C-alpha cells in the first residue's frame, strides 16, 4: 500500500472513530435528558433573574436588556466547563477510557468525540439563549453577517474553555474535584463586564475586568450585535474583537497540547 493510501486510510479511521465517540456522547443526552435540560435552563434562569429581579447594566448608556443578553451569551460559554470535567472524570473513574484503549481505535478520538458533542451542546445553548433574549426584548441591529460573526466568537471562546476543562479533568482525576472548578468559574464570570460596565467600577478593578477574556468576547459581541457597551476608551475595549480572537486562540494553543499529552500519558 502506498504512503498516500495509508495516510488516507489513517485519516478515514480517525474520522470514523471520532464520529463513533461523538455518537456515544450524544446518546447520553437521550439517556440523561434531565441533565441536558438543566444545562440549557440554568443560564436562562440567570438571564431572567438579572434582567427582571436583580437589575444590572450599571454605567451603561442604553437599554439594560440589550447590554445584558450578549454578556450572558458569553458567560454561558463558561458554564459548560463543569459538565465537560464531570463527563471526563466519570469516564476515567469507571474505567471507560481503559476499555477504549484496549480496542483497535485511533488514540485521541475519545477527546475528539467529547469536544464535538460539547460544541453541539453549546450551539443548542446559544440558540435557546438567543431565543429567550429575543422574547424579553433584546435585538441585534447590524445584520445577519455581523450576528453570525458574534456567534462565531462565542463558540471560539467555548472551544477554548472546552480544552481547559478536558485538561483540568484529567489532572483532577475525580468527579469530586469538579466542585473546586465550579467555585473558580463564578469569580471569573463576575469579574467581567457581563453585568456592569467597567466604567462604573474603581479604576484598578475596571482595568482588570477589561482584560478578562470573557469581557473581550462580551464587548466584541455587543459591538457586532450593535448593542450598548460595545465600545470604551481603553485599548482593550477599542480592540475587543482582536482580543476576542487572540485570547481563545492563546488558551487553546496552551491547553489543547497539554490535554493531548496528558491523555497520552494516561494511555500508557
**Structural class label:** mainly alpha
The number of E-state strands comes to: 0
Would you identify the regions where 5 or more consecutive residues have pLDDT less than 50? 1-9
N- to C-terminal separation? 29 Å
Major sheet characteristics = none
Tell me roughly what share of residues is in helical segments: over 70%
Order of helices and strands: HHHHHHHHHHH
- In angstroms, what is the radius of gyration? 20 Å
Number of helical runs? Answer: 11
Blueprint of the fold:
Blueprint: H1 3-31, H2 33-54, H3 64-93, H4 96-101, H5 109-135, H6 143-172, H7 178-190, H8 203-210, H9 213-225, H10 235-238, H11 240-266
Helix pairs in contact: 1-5, 2-3, 2-5, 3-5, 3-6, 3-7, 3-9, 5-6, 6-9, 6-11, 9-11
Task: Describe what this molecule looks like in 3D.
This protein is an all-alpha fold. Helix content is 78%, strand content 0%. Helix 2 runs antiparallel to helix 3, helix 3 runs antiparallel to helix 5 and helix 3 packs parallel to helix 6. The longest helix has 30 residues.
Structure in a nutshell:
The chain has 268 residues and is mainly α. Helix content is 78%, strand content 0%.
List keywords for this structure.
mainly alpha, 11 helices, about 80% helix, disordered N terminus
Amino acid at each position: 500500500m502506498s504512503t498516500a493510501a495509508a495516510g488516507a486510510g489513517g485519516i478515514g479511521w480517525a474520522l470514523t472513530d471520532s464520529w463513533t465517540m461523538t455518537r456515544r456522547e450524544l446518546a447520553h443526552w437521550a439517556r440523561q435528558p434531565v441533565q441536558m435540560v438543566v444545562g440549557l435552563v440554568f443560564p436562562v434562569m440567570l438571564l431572567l433573574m438579572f434582567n427582571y429581579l436583580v437589575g444590572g447594566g450599571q454605567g451603561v448608556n442604553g437599554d439594560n436588556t440589550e447590554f445584558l443578553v450578549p454578556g450572558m451569551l458569553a458567560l454561558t460559554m463558561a458554564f459548560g466547563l463543569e459538565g465537560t470535567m464531570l463527563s471526563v472524570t466519570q469516564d476515567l473513574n469507571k474505567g471507560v477510557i481503559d476499555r477504549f484503549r484496549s480496542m483497535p481505535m485511533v488514540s485521541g478520538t475519545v477527546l475528539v468525540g467529547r469536544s464535538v458533542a460539547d460544541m453541539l451542546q453549546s450551539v443548542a445553548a446559544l440558540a435557546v439563549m438567543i431565543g429567550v433574549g429575543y422574547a424579553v426584548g433584546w435585538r441585534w441591529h447590524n445584520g445577519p453577517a455581523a450576528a453570525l460573526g458574534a456567534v462565531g466568537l462565542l463558540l471560539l471562546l467555548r472551544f477554548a474553555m472546552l480544552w481547559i476543562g478536558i485538561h483540568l479533568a484529567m489532572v483532577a482525576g475525580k468527579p469530586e474535584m469538579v466542585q473546586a472548578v465550579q467555585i473558580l468559574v463564578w469569580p471569573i464570570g463576575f469579574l467581567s463586564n457581563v453585568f456592569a460596565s467597567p466604567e462604573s467600577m474603581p479604576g484598578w478593578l475596571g482595568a482588570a475586568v477589561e482584560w478578562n477574556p470573557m469581557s473581550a468576547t462580551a464587548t466584541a459581541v455587543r459591538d457586532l450585535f450593535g448593542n450598548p457597551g460595545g465600545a470604551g476608551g481603553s485599548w482593550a475595549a477599542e480592540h475587543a474583537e482582536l482580543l476576542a480572537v487572540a485570547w481563545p486562540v492563546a488558551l487553546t494553543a496552551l491547553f489543547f497540547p497539554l490535554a493531548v499529552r496528558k491523555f497520552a500519558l494516561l494511555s500508557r
